Amino acid sequence: NAGVTQTPKFQVLKTGQSMTLQCAQDMNHEYMSWYRQDPGMGLRLIHYSVGAGITDQGEVPNGYNVSRSTTEDFPLRLLSAAPSQTSVYFCASFDRNTEAFFGQGTRLTVV
Amino acid sequence: GESVGLHLPTLSVQEGDNSIINCAYSNSASDYFIWYKQESGKGPQFIIDIRSNMDKRQGQRVTVLLNKTVKHLSLQIAATQPGDSAVYFCAERSQGAGGTSYGKLTFGQGTILTVHP
User: Smallest CA–CA separation between A53 and chain B, in Å?
Assistant: First the structure.
């Protein structure tokens, strides 16, 4: 199993550009989440999903959209990138009785 | 609102000492708690978990204690080694919550543990 795979690992965007961060898991987990981590900070929840077709907002959802059309994939879309969205983004997947498994992160810089 | 926080942002110890990292939570509905270790440039990695029907759980060199009365969680690392240097996060879920809340995993601020040889 590959676990949780995030792509790309690094990305530089210009202000106003849009892009999609990809996240895929091969563990058939029901739940998936997106977090952002700023330097010296903890992980803040952006959006999460409890199954295909079901998503909800976390602590910092503004400026981001998600969808969950399949169990495996949970893409995160930045609609119009802003410098404040410069961060490291982590995707996680888990089930009701398991700990969360994390991807290796996407380092995003918005200039 | 829901929050999970830590008392100490940094902790420095000597190799061989025991380390204790603390965490406070405010959501009384939380029933599942997890400790994660994050090394530089990597995603968080699972260390140990505990459910609300337990007070203590032990792993290899690690022990988690849960005090539901004061909503406090701690991670004890025995005989701390330089390889334990990392950021440690506590996280919580409410597995029995309604709606979609059971899929919501919330993290605390984190504690930077530095182990000196």
Answer: 12
- Integer Cα distance of B107 and B33 in angstroms: 10
- In what order do the strands lie in the sheet containing B4-5? B4-5, B19-25, B72-77, B62-67, B56-58
Q: Would you state the pLDDT for residue B97? A: 63
Residue type, B50: I
pLDDT digits (tens, 9 = 90+) for B85-100: 999 999 998 876 667 7
Helix segments in chain A, DSSP class H: none
CB contact set of B94 (below 8 Å; sequence gap of 6+): B27, B29, B30, B31, B32, B101, B102, B104
Q: Give the helix, strand, coil percentages of chain B, each rounded to 5.
A: 5, 50, 45
Contact A100 B102 (CB under 8 A): no
CA distance A59 to B8: 22
Report d(CA A47, CA A53) in Å as an integer. 13
Using CA coordinates, name the residue in chain A closest to B47. Answer: A99
